Amino acid sequence: MLTILLITLIMVTSIFYQKNSIILSRIVMLSFIFSAFLVVNTFSIDSLTTGLSIYNNLLQVTSITAYFEILILVASALVFFSLDKNLPKDVILHYSYLVLLSILGSILLVGSTNFITLFLSIELQSFAVYVLSGLFKKSHTAVAASLKYFLIGALSSTLILLGSALVYGNTGLIHFNDLLLFNTLNYDSANTLYNYTALAYLVIAVGLLTKMAVAPFHYWAPDVYDGVPTSVTLFLTNLPKLSIIVLLIELTLKMDNFYDYLEIFIIITASASLIIGSVLGLKQNKLKRLLTYSTISHLAYIIIPLTFLSFNHLSSILFYIAQYTLTNINIFLIIIAMTYTYKHFQSTISDTTHNGGLNNKVPKDIDYISDLTMAVKYNPTLALSFAICLFSFSGIPPLAGFWGKYYVLTGVIEQKLYVFALLAILSSVISAIYYLSLIKTTFASIPLSIENRNHFNHSPDKVNHNNTDNSIQSSSHRMIEEKENSDILNISNKVVAPMSYTIAILTHIIALIYFLPDFFLKSVKWVALSQFLL
């Protein structure tokens, strides 16, 4: 379906490009939703519980791959709500192309059954993401972030390819099911072939964890995610990781806990992610960098169950990934929606304090945490939704994030990993500090002076201290207040209606999941159970 859409999109580009390129992005978004409905229909196939091999066993369809395909397609559709119709036509057009290519690679990666399709799929996904990072060519930070992302991505791809070659060189096998049989027959730590194969798996794991930005392979992520526009960051922090998580689950099931020191390696990286994500996030003053470290800490909850994967633990992973993805997407949509208010605030100042001021209406993201100051005044609904999502990230009951952490930590305690459980609880407390500081900044009610307003623009003007200049500034201050008071009720209209509805729906799901836990748990438990019936 996605391949047909890509070919069709290329054919109709010449027709719609000169008219309205936003139509193309809406076509792609609706196609993602339609594709998700097609995947839902696969659950009615009886043989899905045992798995289906397609394209000469190059790809497979199972309940868990179908689950993640639905999640990826729905999340991809939500990403398109971040596009501003006022962006240049070529940016919207290229964004649609690149997201479609990356999602096509993600879907193929989810269903991969051997190392050949694994590498080709992950490169298809990665190449589109590299270009997407540098889509805004006039932004020096975006270009630098794209270059850094490409270099780190090339290194991690090299490690994946090296590990795959080592596996093939030691075993002569490339299919995951064949490797499961090999591991069963050669399960002996004294076997040299066994140890070489374990080393190959370790190299592959390092490459995959680097692409996911799991500590200590995370150092590229804060710079890259902060350097690109928020609409691109929204995509990078969610979609590429989902398909890699599926691959890790698949490889873990095929290894079947044969390699004990790989489990130790996962525990160490998960612990490092908790510490680095929570501690380094405390000293951040830029919003996207802080959310990047938040993502790093949350990845620990996703990868730690891989060390003791079973039916209940797999269901906890599925639930945590679903709630975290929806919450993270909602947070970035809220930030983008707040950007409309922020740009309106900037244009109000520039219109009043500068002659003509139109040249100052340049699209600008919310970069600093201080930019959220008094957001509750301009759009209290967005501020409340933002607070709910941050409380969910903190693990405050009865929000979705609490239940996700609860189910994961229950499995950790059952496996007697008490040190990791204690570390996870302490990191949650530390992370709550910067989440609460964000909420405090958002709901701050400090009156804005002329100096505060210049701080919002991050370009302070020189202040003259003579009486004439003081009177001009006082007059400008009164004009700003009058204009803001007259427009305060109309600012929320700057947020497009589809984005508003999406934020409202996601916020209600996050807040009211306590009243609907059975629906979500039964769905993920059914998927997990069918996976272990294979």
Question: Notable features of this structure?
Answer:
two-stranded antiparallel ribbon; globular; 72% helix; 534 residues; 2 strands; mainly alpha
Architecture overview:
The chain is mainly α. The protein has a domain at 297-534. 72% of the residues lie in helices and 1% in strands. The protein has helices spanning 2-16, 22-41, 63-79, 89-110, 115-133, 140-171, 176-185, 192-212, 221-227, 230-236, 239-255, 260-279, 287-303, 311-353, 375-378, 380-394, 400-414, 418-442, 450-457, 467-487, 497-512, 517-532, and strands spanning 52-54, 59-61. Strands 1-2 form a two-stranded antiparallel sheet. The model is unreliable at 344-363 and 447-494 (pLDDT under 50).
